[in-house]
Amino acid sequence: MLISVGRVIKPRGVRGEVKVESLTDFPERFEKLDWVYLKWPSGRVLECRVDSVRYRKGIPYLIFEGYDTPEKARELCGSLIQIPEQEAMPLPDGSFYWFELIGMEVFTEDGRLLGVIDDILRTGGNDVYIVKKGRKEHYIPATEEIIRQVDKARRRMVIHVLEGMLD
What we know:
Blueprint: E1 2-12, E2 17-22, E3 35-39, E4 45-56, E5 59-64, H1 70-74, E6 80-84, H2 98-101, E7 105-108, E8 113-121, E9 128-133, E10 136-141, E11 147-151, E12 156-159
Parallel strand pairs: 7-12
Antiparallel strand pairs: 1-2, 1-6, 2-5, 3-4, 3-6, 4-5, 7-8, 8-9, 9-10, 11-12
């Protein structure tokens, strides 16, 4: 499985450099990339070598082999920069990548299936899991008070329901 760590935004300069929107909590990880997969919304995927990485005001700028002019670099715009899942940076215990959570079944402590995590919202304080079952949708705060258990192997989460939370 491939995971997205960035998105090519636009070319910059005359050497084929591209500005990248980081989709990772570890922006320094771009320095460690040798090869990546570029995936366009159309589904097209290209394996590409990373020639150089630099940062400007914390924003990564990359040059890919064979894309050394602004015209060639423009072809990469809109593509996701992806890596194999096994190359993901390790997380501390109790932390999870979004790709590990999306699609996970969510149950209440009494065993009732609420649905499946369909999406995740990033808010100022904590993430919020959007859990869907049919047309029903619940917004579950990702806090220690609510999340009781996450079982990645079984793709299952158990939550504590506070009064009024599912209304």
